[in-house]
Amino acid sequence: MGAYIIRRLLLIIPTLLGIMIINFALTQFVPGGPIEQVLADMKGEGDAFASISGGAGDVAAELDSAGGNSEYIGARGLPPEFIADLERQFGLDKPPLEQFLHMMWNYVRFDFGESYFKSEGVLDLVWERMPVSISLGLWATLISYMVSIPLGIRKAVRDGSRFDTWTSGVIIVAYAIPSFLFAIMLLVLFAGGSYWQIFPLRGLTSANFDELSLLGKIADYAWHIALPVLAMTISSFATLTLLTKNSFLDEIRKQYVVTARAKGLSEHRVLYGHVFRNAMLIVIAGFPSLFLSVFFSGSLIIETLFSLDGLGRLGFQAALQRDYPVIFGTMFFFGLIGLVVGILSDLMYIFVDPRIDFEKRDA
């Protein structure tokens, strides 16, 4: 097993390098950049896309007004020295290959630089917003497992019954509801929209959080995350529940279960002593990757609706502003975490079922 883990760890290097090369190359062809964003802010537009979307005649006029030799739309009236100074500050005065090699050398030393527009280190920005994303991702994943696994087992045991039918209908309807639409409904109903003011509209904690007792802090934290976590979780029950049910059904029909029942074992012992470990292999082993997907990709709209300043909003704002240190720094950091989580998922398989041997499979 040790040799397999070492091989997987060594594969992280070329995989991560490939991810960074592809995304860095894409940014060289995408219109707009940090210089355009600065120029748009100076002109009061606030968005580089506004100037990029102008017609060909407007572009020609801009370039002509800037002296005919500026590559930046919106540089009208600005001295070339100012533009050159911006390029030096952002490190864009070097050839793309040199920029990439310099960036990767810094990342190997875990030096992710500073944001172009926030005057803060990338790691500091990520660390400030990590509690929000961890709260949403962790609790949404845990609640999904805590509800879906028992429900899936119950549905497998009572396959074809009325309970199985109506619960399937409920979770499929919940799956069909977009999370953002359900979040808006929760806001309207329970956060002062048109009906009841029960839950807060924004933030992860109250302003007086530090003054509360331990129980008060726990209650305040739960009060704030209840609606966003519910909005993120509602559509995740169907897949996990049906996966659990089908896994149990496949195992229940196997010969060893018939043999265990013939020996006189109780139904509880058969289900949880024999069937559970085999049926839950694919479900439990997928926990790290499921948490990672919820953690990084499922919270942008929810964070925006509930005014939570998390990693989803940070990445979205960085993409709009072309804040390259934040984009590439977080991409490297989270890509590394994702690859490590892939290894942890394999180890989880072995933990659930020690009979699995990845080294023999590779051989």
From TrEMBL:
This protein's GO CC annotations: plasma membrane
Annotated membrane topology: Multi-pass membrane protein
InterPro entries: MetI-like, MetI-like_sf
CDD domains: TM_PBP2
Superkingdom in the source lineage: Bacteria
Membrane-crossing residue ranges in chain numbering: 9-30, 132-153, 165-191, 221-244, 279-306, 326-352
Pfam families: BPD_transp_1
GO biological process, one term: transmembrane transport
Annotated localization: Cell inner membrane; Cell membrane
Annotated ranges, domain ABC transmembrane type-1: 130-349
Key words, A-Z: Cell inner membrane, Cell membrane, Membrane, Transmembrane, Transmembrane helix, Transport
Family from the record: Belongs to the binding-protein-dependent transport system permease family.
Name by which UniProt lists this protein: Microcin C transport system permease protein
